Amino acid sequence: MFEAHFQTFEDPEGGVALTSRLATFREELVRRQLTGFVIPRADQQQNEYVAPSEERLAWLTGFTGSAGLAIVLAKQAAVFVDGRYTLQAAKQVDTQAWGIVSLVDPPPESWLAGHLRAGDRLGYDPWLHTSAAVERLAKACTKAGAELVPVETNPVDSIWIDRPAPPLGPVTIHGATFAGEPEADKLTRIRTEMTKLGVDALVLSDSHAVAWTFNIRGADVSHTPLPLSYALVPKDGRPTIFVDHRKLSDLSRGHIERNADVREPDALTPALTDLAGSGATIALDSATAADALTRLITSAGGKPARGNDPVALLKAVKNPTEIAGARTAHRRDAVALARFLAWIDREAPKGTLTEIDAVEALETFRRDTGALKDVSFPTIAGTGPNGAIVHYRVSRKSNRRIAPSDLLLIDSGAQYEDGTTDVTRTIAIGDPTDAMRDRFTRVLRGHIAIARAVFPDGTTGAQLDTLARQFLWQAGVDFEHGTGHGVGSYLSVHEGPARISKLGTTQLKRGMILSNEPGYYKRDAFGIRIENLVLVTAIEIPGAEKPMNGFETLTLAPIDRRLIDRSLGADETRWLNDYHVRVRRELRAHLDEATKVWLDAATEPLPLEEVFPPSYETCARMDVDEADNC
User: Which one of 17, 298, 336, 484 is separated from 603 by 20 to 30 angstroms, measured CA to CA?
Assistant: First the structure.
């Protein structure tokens, strides 16, 4: 009945099965007269999802998370991961051969400083690291008396005998119906920003920026419609896109050539060399531009100007067409979600469903919309202790039966041409415990605090992040991920530069779409996360002395009322009831009769007397049985 087309459940190679690769890799380092090497989880453009040919970290270590780094020295080797992946890495990596170390606090450079020896030669691939990352590595090497050595060819590739070929996904046109702004207008805005920066040219090293600027999409990586490519935008004259011609049809080539020249990827190096040879100042995105580009421009006599890619902020602020598309996409997605949630409530209590069943069913309901292009990331469906693994990915080996008394955490999203979605719901299977209700309600209160936030222009995500954590902090607990990330328009589900987190320094601007997803994870027991996408909008406040903003919630899916305890406040309850009224109003006409019945029950308003215990005076007038509720 159900099947998944866009995600698989095969167990990746890992553990001791890969240990021999580490020994072979060390032999290759000796052959190259290197005593160590740094292997990031990255491609040339620092994409979140990378082509199979770029999965060097996973191939060598077994770790398949979306962020990480490995360092191999002659006697030691370590895999560095952040808090999202600590549990996952421990299960995938041979811990006898690899240490598992923090990626953030302390950073890998601290580990290097303690393990490098004077005279060591630490290699790195300059196409897989940004210049800032290389500078940090160089500082650690200098401190230890070691040398940091750029390599021309990656030693992992030398021993990866069956490495897949680079991708050749077709480039498609993202038409005005969805994009809302012609390429020429976008280029005019980009050049205005370049003038402010005082540069002669801008390298678009982020394929998302290329896709947005020229209104194209592609199919080179999983879950994000990216055409892997570069672009060079001069202050004057036509831009150039560097993309493999085999990805282009006559139609897509004609679309691009209205505003830019098209050249092969290997033409980027001579083009930059020629431009830099004239002494040009060339802007590079510090977040995605490879260190090789900085080295190339500098050696040719140019001036690399590293900083924030101006396209990133332009892209993050959605235009009216993109905003309308996002609303339509979320409404469509919500119909699929309602059908799925009704199915889970009906079938899961029988005790026969598994996590894979849930993933396959949800993707099928989304495909039934007739508009699904891909899932926006592999669905996270974790029940019981698997729900406590923040970025859990179910496999045939880990697949767990959804048992009565479990919590099921399901985090999923879709790619539609008119918008990208991302939603998480935590579902009670059977009767939840008091501890589950307490933690869920604290997470919900934080979620509502973000949803109801009102803030002045200029506010950053870091200033709002505490709102989501306050009720968890009151119980002495927290969650080890950001509260929210930016979301693209039929692009990356994790889009910069804005985010709601302790590190979110970008100002939140009207038109940005972000996630609102606080959570709680009890190791080996259960996980909780509640996620909606929100749109930054203007808020009118009588007498306000400065422009004020708030959030419009885009996601439309019931929040499990069975997991809410009495600590929910009156204003919070009204917000939830209003949200559920809206969900019912927008979805009901698009559902079958059985799902309508489920939706009506799932969005039934919470009476305030259910949330707040009766007063002492009221209890005194009750009989013995009634007073049990006091």
Answer: 484
